[in-house]
Amino acid sequence: MTSQSKVKIAIIGAGPVGSLCACFMAEYGYDVTIFESRTDIRLMQTTTGRSINLALSERGIKALQFVGLDNILIEELTEPMHGRMIHSTDGHNYSIPYDIFKKKCLYSISRKELNGVLLTKLEKYPNVKLNFSYKLVDIDFSSKKLTFQTVENQQVIILPDIVFGCDGAHSIVRQHMIRLPMFNYSQSYINHGYFEINLPNTKENVLTPGHLHIWPRGTFMLIALPNKDSFWTCTLFMPMDKFPLILESGKEEILSFFNKHFKDFVNLIDPENLIRQVISGKARTLISIKCNPYHVNDSFLLMGDAAHAIVPFYGQGMNAGFEDCTILNQLLNEYDHDLKTVLRMFSLRRIEDAEAISDLALYNYIEMRDLVTRKSFLWRKKIDKILYKWFPQKWIPLHSLVSFTTIGYKQCKLINQWQDQVIFRMLILFSLFIGITLFIVLTSIILK
Amino acid sequence: MTSQSKVKIAIIGAGPVGSLCACFMAEYGYDVTIFESRTDIRLMQTTTGRSINLALSERGIKALQFVGLDNILIEELTEPMHGRMIHSTDGHNYSIPYDIFKKKCLYSISRKELNGVLLTKLEKYPNVKLNFSYKLVDIDFSSKKLTFQTVENQQVIILPDIVFGCDGAHSIVRQHMIRLPMFNYSQSYINHGYFEINLPNTKENVLTPGHLHIWPRGTFMLIALPNKDSFWTCTLFMPMDKFPLILESGKEEILSFFNKHFKDFVNLIDPENLIRQVISGKARTLISIKCNPYHVNDSFLLMGDAAHAIVPFYGQGMNAGFEDCTILNQLLNEYDHDLKTVLRMFSLRRIEDAEAISDLALYNYIEMRDLVTRKSFLWRKKIDKILYKWFPQKWIPLHSLVSFTTIGYKQCKLINQWQDQVIFRMLILFSLFIGITLFIVLTSIILK
């Protein structure tokens, strides 16, 4: 019996981050129990309308490696996306590859499938216990007492040594932490929301595979992510106050809106199906969560969306959550499983990076819905491409830094700021050079 | 029976803002019921250690005028403070008056006394009902159902038409609102805390009356506010991590700390009394709260600290809360008691001002504990004084704008920024003038 096996770990939430965190702790021999408020996701029907697609990238893959799930997941359950396919208003389409030289890509995966694989993996550990339909109703932070309500309306009290709050953006663990002194917290909704539409992959459906498709329209956009199950998950992002104009309008108005802005998309879907999905749909909100610290006392730690929910525009929400597990793992080794220190250090090491990806994700919405159509952006991409080709180790564009490396998010932001400065100075020098050359040429002509 | 008398108003919290808000609504004939989780403050013993002194200024006075309580409160229950008395480290004291020309001042008042007067006033309205020891435990926002727990452990359910959440910085109403979509919220603790000491007004006690006394020490400070009951409420503000060094140390260390930094203060208090208060004391935290919006649906509104708790360094917390009542009153008249519109407009009209005073209050801590000892600050005060004398309507210094006018806080901030710019430009012009004069003088000497 190792010393770890005596430590009782409670993990709140059996979503992707909670499940992966449980795998990590189980690998080290801890006595792990998971409590999930909902039923087993593997037994649930897929619900449309909620964000059901995730984009797995380097940080997520690295964390999955530790539990040996990276290859099987990528090979069997994902669809690669090598770049963005931009659908212009004039019907012209063009591809912006994510990583033209190193050929790296994002992997589109269904949240349900991914979560299912992790849960099935968990069931194989003898030191893990899974409890579904256990709703956390109370926490006493000083005595570490957790009170749950089961589906049979019974109260269950447990007294674990360590609690990981992995219960998502609307975390109950965090709801209790908010009342504690010196716990800094902010939740901010952006003024834009989203609404999902399933696009079946029929014979007539000719969306180019291997891409994340974007219809950027300035203040709003439609995107489409490929699925293994031969359909595309399409999401319409737009200002919240504009949704009623579509969702609550008549069939004619709905078709006219889609025809006006997403003509080639309408050609891919049965109009009746589109109208049915829109009429039965509901606009959903997008929230950013920031906390500081993530830990309470020596025994409670928030991870994943519970600690740092972000808007989905960088496809980094789950990757950042999975990276939390990698960081936790690093700290367990660095501090020789002294959990008290590990929890405290987790807050110190993680908060700045989480705030950086939160900002980057907000910025990326503007890039996706608007900048990708601008000449200045496409020129910047070209300069990036040339410098990346010449200095593949030194000049990595921002999107690649975030999606295809494990460099801290804050560092990615700083590197990008430095790149902006370098390009700005290069432009100044280039202008100077042109100016001086012109001066010399003109002077020599005049003096001749 | 007026149409107002049919509208059932529930006010959560019988603190100063809840009580005043109830007075306003009672004046208009609404059917008002107040629910307070604690017992009647008038029956409670004064507890030391918690912030018990408030500085009443223009905005608070204006709101009290509406219910005819301004004069009686000022005359019978307050101690005027005409300026700040700065106690330097070298033992030298100097006064910085608040408003040298218009002779305006702040009024120090005990929170308990003020609250008591408002409650006694409330009891005289036939359309007001006061319930103490009613703890709000649940809110159903769609059905407007409020559930309370009484001191006898009974559940009481009420169904009001409108709910005002005036239950302070740790508001239960707000705790429930946090879970609603599109409710933006942030709570941030500053790294500094406070601890209170009572200084009896003995014969030997020679703190100059009519002042707010400050011992500014760079990263920390001691302040003293006068009380009607012949004692001073003294507050030590400092970084949270420094408190254990004092509060948990021995008698010698406590005396040595106060002797080192607040020599003249120690001379005013019995050392045994000081040590007793310090040893039994506890450092308290300081929080800033921001929400957006303040209202939910057509029937719930946060007011006072529940909506916008701020740090206490501008003495504006209660004044801003009382001003909320004035704004509410203006909107009731503007929109002819259409409460649905009034609640929505309250958010629109109030949020930016509340955020401005929150920022100003944070800034004022730096001014009080540090800047007041700097030459540059004192010079700026002198320039302000001259311009204020010459243009008493046009050039009102920031502190006077905030404390002695009812100009919106955001506007006060903007005026101050404009003043900074004017002074900066004047300095540039003055330097230019000196430079040119010197150049002319030197040239004429050389050419002679």
Automatic annotation (TrEMBL), chains A, B:
It is found in: Mitochondrion; Membrane. The chain crosses the membrane at residues 422-447. Pathway: Cofactor biosynthesis; NAD(+) biosynthesis; quinolinate from L-kynurenine: step 1/3. GO terms for cellular component: mitochondrial outer membrane. GO terms for biological process: 'de novo' NAD+ biosynthetic process from L-tryptophan; anthranilate metabolic process; kynurenine metabolic process; L-tryptophan catabolic process; quinolinate biosynthetic process. SUPFAM superfamilies: FAD/NAD(P)-binding domain. Its main location: mitochondrion. It comes from the Eukaryota. It catalyses: L-kynurenine + NADPH + O2 + H(+) = 3-hydroxy-L-kynurenine + NADP(+) + H2O. Its cofactor is FAD. The keyword Mitochondrion applies. Residues 7-332 form the FAD-binding domain. Its EC number is 1.14.13.9. It is a multi-pass membrane protein. GO terms for molecular function: FAD binding; kynurenine 3-monooxygenase activity. InterPro entries: FAD-bd, FAD/NAD-bd_sf, Kynurenine_monooxygenase. Keywords: FAD, Flavoprotein, Membrane, Mitochondrion, Monooxygenase, NADP, Oxidoreductase, Pyridine nucleotide biosynthesis, Transmembrane, Transmembrane helix. The keyword Membrane applies. Belongs to the aromatic-ring hydroxylase family. KMO subfamily. Catalyzes the hydroxylation of L-kynurenine (L-Kyn) to form 3-hydroxy-L-kynurenine (L-3OHKyn). Required for synthesis of quinolinic acid. HAMAP family: Kynurenine_monooxygenase (MF_01971). This is Kynurenine 3-monooxygenase. It comes from Sipha flava. The gene is LOC112690499.
